[in-house]
Amino acid sequence: MAATTALTAQNTQGVHDIHYVPPAFVSKQIDACIDDIGVDVVKIATTGAQLLPNAAVTNVRTQLLPLTTILTPNISEARLLLENAGAKITPEIKNVKDLVQLASLLQPMGPKYVLVKGGHMPFDKDFNVPQQASEQKYVVDVLHTDDRTTIFITDFSYSKNTHGTGCSLACTSLTTPTDLFSLQPST
């Protein structure tokens, strides 16, 4: 179950418009699924567009995250939540360890699981941010819970039509988050 905070008019090229769901209706959604809530509160799109007003980020962090089963932020969203909480994070992502740090810092805010989606930040063969586009080799997603971190590695494939892929991954993970741990992580 999920609570939708905004509706977007979008395609594979980007976000064209945003309609914020009235807070009273968001509250009704949360009340309806309070016992088993999943949150994919899209706050920053791949294009860099911030979809959630700054004033709402604190409410998401303090009111929704403690009720969340699985949080599925992209890197920018994870950083936004952590900066809002005053967490000390690295100024920029340099390697996969930095993605793991984001997930491990978010999880104590309430979600049982945190899946940091790294699909739009490819890494080189040594799992560092590449210096040149020709060095892009892998994309990495990090799943973290109290006692376990799983890193999913996929070959990088360039495409200009990746808009919405993170939302698709988030929706899939909301159905059965524990099944993600049964997948074999890449080595």
Describe this structure in words.
With 187 residues, the protein is of the alpha/beta class. It has helices at 23-32, 54-64, 75-84, 96-106, 165-175, 177-182; strands at residues 6-11, 14-20, 37-39, 68-71, 113-123, 138-145, 148-155. The protein has a five-stranded mixed beta sheet with strand order 3-4-5-6-7, sandwiched between helices. It has a two-stranded antiparallel ribbon with strand order 1-2. Helix 3 packs across helix 4 (96-106). It is globular and about 50 Å long.
Itemize the secondary structure elements and their pairings.
Layout: E1 6-11, E2 14-20, H1 23-32, E3 37-39, H2 54-64, E4 68-71, H3 75-84, H4 96-106, E5 113-123, E6 138-145, E7 148-155, H5 165-175, H6 177-182
Parallel strand pairs: 3-4, 4-5
Antiparallel strand pairs: 1-2, 5-6, 6-7
Which structural class should the secondary elements be placed in? alpha/beta
> Oligomeric status of the shown chains?
single chain
User: CA-to-CA gap between the ends?
Assistant: 32 Å
Query: Total helix count?
Result: 6
Strand content bin: 25-35%
Strand order of the largest sheet: 3-4-5-6-7
Summarize the biggest pleated sheet.
5 strands, mixed
Shape: globular
Low-confidence stretches: none
Helix content: 25-40%
Radius of gyration, rounded? 16 Å
Report the mean per-residue pLDDT as an integer. 79
DSSP strand count: 7
Q: Note the run of SSEs as H and E.
A: EEHEHEHHEEEHH
